[in-house]
Design brief:
The complex is a heterodimer of chains A (114) and B (111).
Chain A: E1 5-7, E2 10-13, E3 19-24, E4 31-37, E5 43-50, E6 53-56, E7 65-68, E8 75-79, E9 88-95, E10 104-105, E11 109-113
Parallel strand pairs in A: 2-11
Antiparallel strand pairs in A: 1-3, 3-8, 4-5, 4-9, 5-6, 7-8, 9-10, 9-11
Chain B: E1 5-7, E2 10-14, E3 19-24, E4 31-37, E5 44-49, E6 55-58, E7 61-65, E8 71-76, E9 85-92, E10 100-101, E11 105-110
Parallel strand pairs in B: 2-11
Antiparallel strand pairs in B: 1-3, 3-8, 4-5, 4-9, 6-7, 7-8, 9-10, 9-11
The chains are: A mainly beta (114), B mainly beta (111).
Amino acid sequence: NAGVMQNPRHLVRRRGQEARLRCSPMKGHSHVYWYRQLPEEGLKFMVYLQKENIIDESGMPKERFSAEFPKEGPSILRIQQVVRGDSAAYFCASSADSYNSPLHFGNGTRLTVT
Amino acid sequence: GQQLNQSPQSMFIQEGEDVSMNCTSSSIFNTWLWYKQDPGEGPVLLIALYKAGELTSNGRLTAQFGITRKDSFLNISASIPSDVGIYFCASSGGSNYKLTFGKGTLLTVNP
């Protein structure tokens, strides 16, 4: 996991609040991916970004969820008006390219909605 | 959508024993990956397989990409206590980044 940095590690939000999750990819990686893991489940793909571009957001809910990867700074996954069902571990991964390089994951942000 | 059937769900073994787990699918995949996840951590890549029939080792771990491209197995030899964790298979079809994960195999090793 060394290299992909996510913060915060734990985040508690009340229903209706906004959650902002940050991810800095490994050095030299320009491809970032967000996955969500529900308890006792495998990870599920949400979105793929390169610098300033969303490449594939087919796994992301259409409402309340958004992601960005600005030219400068970390990638941000934003969840507006959180609901209890948003409680999960959110993992960011990065790779050197999207074709042959395997994904390397960060340690995740565990979101709890009360 | 595509699904991976990973088995067994959990295993309890004695230190020193060998372990085998596998993943199957009704779909054909181009890549098979095996990850290990410790509690409170992210998945760590153990082995990546890119060709049907490929057999790859990483220390005490060995994994194979099935000839039919619909399955893969992971073997751990001479298990030790630090092998404890959840092992996930993951695969991709056309896009290497859009991984489908199995539900995991929880491994417990009794010293």
